[in-house]
Amino acid sequence: MTNRNEQWKHEKDGLEILKELPVLAEKEFKEIDPGDVERLKWAGIYAQRPRDGHFLVRVKLPSGQLTAAQAKVLADLAAAYGKGEIQITIRQAVQIHNITLRDAVDILPRLKAAGLSSVEACGDVPRTILGNPLAGVDAEELLDTRPLVEEVFRFFLGNRDFSNLPRKFKISISANPHDAGFARINDLAFVPARREGEAGFVAYVGGGLSAEPHLAVRLPFFIRPAEVKAVAEAVATLFRDEGYREKRNHCRLKYLVADLGAERVAEKIEAQTGALLRGGKEVTAPWNYGRFYGTHAQKQPGLCYVGVHVKNDHIRAEDLRAFAELAERFGQGRLRTTNSQNLILLDIPEGETGALLHDAIFKAYPTAPGFFTGYASSCTGNAYCNFAPIETKNRLHELTAALDEAFPEVGQPLRINLTGCFHACAQPQVADIGLTGGRARVGEAVVPVYTVMIGGHLGEGSAFARPLEGRVVDDKLLGLLEALVQKYLALREAGEPFYATVARTGLELWQSVANQYTIA
Ligand code: SF4
User: Fold this and answer.
1) Which residue from 30, 191, 213, 292 has the least number of CB within 10 angstroms?
2) Any alpha helices (H) in 426-473, and if so which ranges?
3) 381 CA to middle of ligand 1, Å?
4) What is the pLDDT of residues 129-156, one digit of tens each?
5) How far is it, in rounded angstroms, from Cα 56 to Cα 38?
6) Are the CB atoms for 207 and 427 separated by under 8 Å?
């Protein structure tokens, strides 16, 4: 057997842990077999930092769909077990931290009763399905993806044919033209396309970030909605049967796809699905960064959705309950989470948006946040993550709040993503400015330091950010960011996003700015 994780999966299917949870909950953390701690991920339960018997539970919300009744259950659970806080993740899931396994024994049935599930929210399995948070109300969507998301989600949920994959498997299904599903950084993504007037999808495979980022490559097919599940099953089967299982950091689908190439992958898919149509023209529009702030018309006449910003992607339990009550009072009891870790209220009658926005809660959760604070992303950092060398969320908010203050003239989003380590959970490679944290000795002290990359974006012409040389020490970081923003303001053409200015002007110029702030 090839690595420790493979041995654990071979010994016992991860889903078995669901039955064993009540027994494990009676043990001291140090008595629990490390294989079982790993298998708890299959129940959506993840050991957090410090490893002292506290966990997070991750709840899947496919395409970000959440009813007010479900939101209230999550708020109750967070208040009862999780220090009153809920985190929205970059895959539209939610997490409650600081729970014990005894808490989990209570929590899981209550999730199930509410029509929610944490099963396979973590682990080497198909993860929650990312999607258009506006599915069903989106005036621009090519088709309503909710039934497809539901079909694929139900097919994989707890399916023992796919509960032992080489690594996690991330699917995105969106028919929104603004790349709301961040297609090219998923293992498998369906994006909107037309072929001879017919609405359907084209698919991308083999995307992923971490230390060796890959942009997913396009398959040659035009995929009809009725074929989406079969294609997802075929790709998952290929990954399960031919994916690498030796070195953990070389097991993601992206490595298999890179070795096989798109045509060979396509042949292997068709060997399972039968012949698929070729061609299809993608339906695209500028990337919206996964942000849906403000009040906008839905496809249903007279109704609006309202996108709000959740600072540091953590929402207080009482605030989630308050949003659920607003969604019931003004709308039809529907909310959505976004992969930018924010919230949307649906179905607000046009004439009542003013009354809704009058609620005091929007002071803490703005609908028009700053162009730095509202578009920044940070990973969990050392608050809960065992890998993290630095604190991320408060530091990034401090930095972006200072930039909002200093550069009111910026007038459009400038996305800064801060990630705690090379695992890249905050997706620095697709940010305008991506920061990766670490620690280094500087003089007498060991301090936080950052590497910097610039110019990343998704949507049409997706490209990863390119690294600048050198590292910047924490107390010089704001100075460097200010200098980069100043340079952008001086060079940009009308309406040009930061990443486009970088692409047009070349890296050397930006390196010369950075050199004044970086150490070797
Ligand atoms: Fe943890 Fe690293 Fe991911 Fe941040 S990027 S959450 S530090 S693993």
Assistant:
1) 30
2) none
3) 6
4) 999 999 999 999 999 999 999 999 999 9
5) 13
6) no
